[in-house]
Design goal:
Length: about 425
């Protein structure tokens, strides 16, 4: 996109340079022809009506200069006064002064040729051709009048052919100039539209980046900090109940768990700021991290006075996974097991991590109360977000996530992450079913 945009801008710039050269050449030609006529007038000596001719010539120069200056200022800064609505009146004034001059002196007749270009540029094509034809006839008549006169020799062919050929040349060149001018305007509008589209695209990409970052942080907070805070609340309540029951030893155990969970959450929060992976994975392998998570899940379930057996099984030969994969699997296990001890009322949960050569798979099974996966939705209190967050995590790595569950039949969360290049050694695969096998 950038290369094509730069090409269009270069074409627009090239066309603008050509138009500027043609415009400057036109103005210089007009000034040169007017100067030649004035020099010839002064060389003959000024007397009588010559002063009036000189005044008209200077007036023509002033009117022409005023129009070109206004046009230049508008081309540089379009927000300034726009002279285009009055351009026809300006051209009419220039042509009227020129007509008076050519009847007074034939030296000014050659100004007709730059005027042909002005007529083609300012007037509509039909009016411009009519004005050029009238100007050509006027030039022929003036040349005949000043050279031979009505009482002299008849009108000669060169007197006719010169202005006619000049007019035809001016029309052809002027039409080419107009075509180039319109093309340059179209390219300028296209370049403006391209710049506007680029700005809109940059803005939309910026907004998309902000939204993506918010989504990422939402997933991270839900799968780590929110789960940790929930555990802290439950452990705190359990410690309070233990104190009320006169069991300070159990309360102390619960409070230590609260401290450990709070410390882990603090480490997660600091890693969010640094944009690093989970601190658990910085110190342990994915297998060890999942094993510790299973033990932590049993402890947190016990804090609710429930018995939950949670174990990790591995299939295939464990291998080191890229950071995005290991982090996604750990977060998925954290979110799924948090749902198990919070909502499932399960007695057993099994996490199976399988290394399958070209992909890695993880299944989280529980024998709890189950639920209807199609009926899960985000709730106002923020719960219900985990499954959608987990799907987004897995989809970001081109993986798949399947949830099999039904009321009263337990739940299986199955995740498959393809690994490009088949970097893992293949191994046997065994995925536990809903019966816990």
């Amino acid at each position: 996109m950038n290369d094509s945009g730069s090409g269009e801008e270069r074409e627009t710039t090239d066309a603008a340079v050509i138009l500027r050269v043609l415009r400057v050449s036109l103005h210089v030609g007009f000034a040169a022809l007017l100067l030649v006529a004035l020099v010839r007038l002064l060389a003959r000596g000024i007397s009588g009506t010559d002063w009036l001719v000189l005044g008209l010539a200077l007036c023509l120069a002033g009117v022409y200069l005023a129009g070109t200056v206004l046009e230049k200022r508008h081309s540089v800064r379009p927000e300034r006064f726009d002279p285009r609505p009055g351009s026809a009146w300006w051209l009419g004034t220039v042509c009227l002064i020129w007509v008076l001059l050519v009847w007074a002196s034939a030296d000014f007749v050659w100004l007709a040729f730059p005027l042909f270009f002005l007529q083609l540029h300012v007037l509509p094509r039909g009016m411009a051709l009519g004005a050029i034809a009238a100007s050509t006839l006027l030039v022929i008549a003036v040349l005949w009048f000043h050279n031979d006169g009505p009482g002299g020799h008849p009108l000669e062919l060169p007197t006719v052919l010169g202005p006619v050929f000049g007019a035809v040349f001016a029309v052809v060149t002027g039409l080419a100039y107009r075509a180039l001018y319109l093309e340059a305007e179209n390219q300028r509008l296209a370049a403006d539209e391209l710049r506007r589209t680029r700005a809109e695209l940059a803005s939309s990409q910026h907004e998309a980046g902000i939204l993506a970052e918010r989504t990422r942080l939402g997933r991270e907070i839900h799968d780590t900090l929110a789960q940790g805070f929930s555990s802290i609340v439950l452990m705190g309540r359990s410690a309070e109940q233990a104190l009320d029951a006169g069991d300070p030893a159990m309360a102390a155990v619960r409070l230590r768990t609260v401290q450990e969970t709070a410390a882990a959450n603090l480490a997660e929060a600091r890693n969010f700021v640094r944009g690093l992976q989970s601190p658990e994975l910085e110190q342990n392998s994915l297998v060890n991290s999942l094993r510790r998570l299973c033990a932590q899940t049993e402890t947190e379930a016990a804090a609710r006075c429930t018995t939950l057996r949670c174990r990790l099984e591995t299939d295939g030969t464990p291998a080191e996974l890229p950071n995005p994969y290991s982090t996604t699997l750990l977060r998925a296990a954290q979110a799924s097991l948090a749902n198990v001890w919070t909502h499932a009322h399960a007695a057993a949960a099994v996490v199976t991590l399988s290394f399958l050569g070209t992909e890695v798979a993880m299944d989280i099974f529980d024998d709890g109360v189950g639920f209807d996966p199609l009926g899960v939705s985000d709730r106002p209190d923020g719960s219900g977000y985990g499954l959608r967050s987990l799907r987004e995590r897995v989809a970001a790595l081109s993986g798949t996530l399947d949830v099999e569950s039904a009321p009263g039949e337990g739940t299986v969360v199955a995740i498959r992450l393809p690994l490009p290049g088949g970097i893992l050694p293949a191994g046997p695969s065994r995925v536990p079913g809903k019966d816990g096998q």
